[in-house]
Amino acid sequence: MVDVSEKPVTLRSSRARGKVQMLAATLNLIQDRQIQKGDVLELARIAGIMASKKTADLIPLCHPLRLDSVDISFRFPNDYTVEIESTVTGHDRTGVEMEAMHAVSVAALTIYDMCKSVDRGMTIDAIQLMEKSGGKSGHFKRDGSSSE
């Protein structure tokens, strides 16, 4: 594990995104809350939040961090995609990028698990860090702009 004991505690924030693609009929069932296992998006939100808090338990050499907030949101850019976005903030000595991406990953897996009985062809795609701020490395944004 990297030694971060000499780094100052600062506000860290990260935003990650991913998507689950499925049949349009499956997305309709999700939106209408007609999936047999329950409310897919609410359970995916809870799973993502829980995952962010367990990141250090599952990713080797990842520092356990104190998280101040975790937000998971969903968008539907077309009739066959659920886009998942997580925003994680915390005051600590290292960034919260892994927590944000882990939240998206587990939320996507939860959607897959809850809907696989009606659509085994779903795909999980494009899980990526969109933005991070705080710490010595400065601000990063996926559009290519970053500051040191």
Shape: elongated
Major sheet size, sense and barrel closure:
6 strands, antiparallel
Query: What percent of residues are in strands?
Result: 25-35%
Q: What is the helical fraction, as a range of percent?
A: 25-40%
Output the CATH class name.
Alpha Beta
Tell me what you see in this structure.
By secondary structure, this protein is of the alpha+beta class. It has a single domain, classed as Alpha-Beta Plaits. The chain contains four helices and six strands. It has a six-stranded antiparallel beta sheet, covered by helices on one side. α2 runs antiparallel to α4. The radius of gyration is 16 Å and the shape is elongated. The two termini are 24 Å apart. The mean pLDDT is 94.
Question: Can you tag this structure with a few keywords?
Answer:
148 residues; alpha+beta; Alpha-Beta Plaits; 6-stranded antiparallel sheet; 4 helices; 6 strands; 30% helix; elongated
Give the helix/strand layout.
Blueprint: E1 10-21, H1 24-31, H2 40-53, H3 55-58, E2 69-78, E3 81-92, H4 97-115, E4 123-133, E5 139-141, E6 146-147
Antiparallel strand pairs: 1-3, 1-4, 2-3, 4-5, 5-6
Helix pairs in contact: 2-4
